[in-house]
Design goal:
heterodimer; A: about 375 residues; mainly beta; four-stranded antiparallel beta sheet; globular; B: about 160 residues; mainly alpha; three-stranded mixed beta sheet
Chain lengths: ~375, ~160
């Protein structure tokens, strides 16, 4: 590819020009979609090109694919409207944390990749799916079964490259009305816009903790108040109960594609990952373990100085970070670097929380 | 295929780098050049400095050498290598971004875009516009100087 002498300088000059122009283009075409929604709303004011770029539905689709980090938590005390605490208030946020754009007062029930599932407090207790950033919402049709006062629901939404319309499922595990001490499942699919009651009935599960559920690889897991975990496989339509880690009251999450349970024991944050879900059916003498101790992070002493607290719930556990609550202070633990630092203080003590991703996903 | 073919990469500073073909095809741009038959003598990369090119080659080598096994340690190692890869001062980072974007290195693209996003995330729109304008000015000055330099050298 050796060109003649004189021509080379021309190519070089024009190419250099193009390259440095490209940095602007690279940012606009590729990097912007990795930003959280609040930053993007602010950056609409940078220049006309950016405003145009950020406002397109195609960009919103790309952003929902590229940005998937936990941006904060929605907190809600019984009877009050929800509030939102951001992990980085400059870049992550929602315009109306109380979700007043919904037609009636609601309780937040579940969240997945930018979508929130809420349930009306009164009336027919309808379910709503919404995006708190774009304020789009959709009321789900009435389920065929009674889900009870505090349904253990899990919203499953995985952004997909070829799906421009969000396709999601909502699975509710509820106490059976027909059988004593049994748990049944009803699943809403946005594709069919309909509910379907599963044929599976589980007789071993105890009372489930609402908002504790997570979905990993099409298998849904809920914490029960007894410390065990109810497992429901969406593809096989089968369920089982497995025992939790240690005392069994860890927070469930997804760590590198596997179910994890994170809890604070003593002064250490421990993240355990499920290694062999069939360990209880292995032959005698098998060394198959259900849980593997994956990460241990010593927590900072300032978290334990406030002597009135002895319980440090893990608000969220993921592949990159975990959030731990000490009194009213949230601490961020980096699972890679083991760095622990103070993040933000809650205005008042809270009991229930839902992690949220600041995505532009369109409903 | 008992011998491994090598490819010569010639860069901005005129230096040549000899790499195994299997490493050289990690960047898709180079892979396409080879497929199109443009790589008979050496592949010119006039927009990339030696410093950046050696970093990029190091990255490609590491990714090729780490087998595609399910070894968690190997994958975690690779992840931390990539993480350290983008820890650099702003000047180097900009050059790195342009090089990776030009070379179209699959594994690194998302990482550098994420790095850029993290850099601009917390700024206000005014700061953002300022950053864009300042950098544009800096770059256009650089371009002007480069043109003059090459003109004077009569390359």
């Amino acid at each position: 590819m050796d060109c003649g002498g004189k021509n080379k300088s021309k190519f070089l000059a024009s190419r250099n020009n193009k390259i440095y122009m490209d940095l602007k283009l690279i940012i606009r075409e590729h990097a912007l979609q990795f930003l959280p929604a609040k930053s993007l709303f602010k950056f609409r004011g940078v220049c006309r090109d950016w405003r145009l770029m950020i406002s397109t539905p195609f960009f919103a689709h790309n952003q929902s694919l590229s940005y998937s980090s936990v941006s904060g938590m929605f907190f809600q005390s019984h009877g009050d409207p929800p509030t939102f605490i951001s992990t980085d208030p400059e870049s992550c946020g929602v315009p109306d944390p109380t979700l007043s754009f919904l037609p009636s007062p609601i309780d937040i029930v579940a969240s997945s990749n930018g979508l929130l599932c809420c349930q009306a407090k009164t009336g027919d207790r309808a379910y709503y799916i919404c995006n708190p950033v774009t304020k789009q919402w959709k009321k789900l049709p009435k389920p065929s079964m009674e889900h009870g006062p505090e349904p253990a629901a899990v919203l499953i939404f995985k952004p997909s490259l070829l799906n421009f319309v969000a396709e999601y499922k909502l699975i509710c595990a509820f106490r059976s009305n027909d059988f004593d001490d049994a748990t049944e499942f009803e699943i809403y699919s946005s594709k069919d816009d309909a509910w379907k009651v599963s044929g599976e009935i589980n007789f071993s599960a105890k009372k489930l903790i609402a908002k504790s559920g997570v979905c990993v690889n099409d298998v849904v897991y809920w914490q029960s108040s007894h410390g065990s975990i109810l497992v429901y496989d969406m593809t096989k339509d089968r369920s089982q109960v497995i025992h939790g880690c240690y005392s069994g009251h860890g927070t469930l999450g997804e760590f590198n594609g596997k179910l994890c349970s994170a809890s604070v024991n003593g002064r250490t944050l421990t993240v355990n990952v499920i290694s062999n879900i069939y360990s209880n059916t292995m032959h005698m003498g098998s060394r198959a373990q259900l849980w593997t101790d994956k990460i241990r992070i010593p927590l900072v002493t300032e978290m334990f100085n406030v002597s009135s607290y002895d319980h440090f719930p893990v608000l969220y556990a993921g592949s990159e970070i975990a959030l731990v609550l000490s009194g009213r202070s949230i601490y961020r633990c980096d699972l890679k670097t083991t760095e622990v630092r103070f993040l933000v203080a809650l205005p008042r003590p809270e009991q229930k929380w839902i992690p949220y991703v600041n995505s532009l996903v369109a409903l | 295929m008992s011998f491994s073919k090598t490819i010569m990469l010639r860069n901005y500073d005129g230096e040549t780098f000899v790499v195994d073909e299997v490493v050289a095809v990690e960047p898709q741009t180079i892979e396409h050049m080879i497929e199109d038959g443009c790589a008979n003598t050496s592949i010119p990369l006039p927009n990339i400095t030696s410093k950046i090119l050696s970093k990029v080659i190091e990255h490609c080598k590491k990714h090729v050498e780490t087998p595609n096994s399910n070894e968690k340690d190997a994958k975690a190692d690779l992840k931390s290598f990539d993480f350290d890869f983008v820890k650099a001062d702003q000047g180097t980072l900009f050059d790195l971004i342009l090089a990776v974007n030009y070379l179209n290195i699959k594994g690194l693209l998302d990482l550098i875009y994420q790095t850029i996003a993290d850099m601009i995330k917390g700024k206000t729109p005014e700061e953002e516009e300022e950053m864009r304008r300042v950098n544009a000015w800096v770059f256009s000055c650089f371009v002007g100087v480069t043109c003059l330099y090459f003109k004077s050298k009569k390359i």
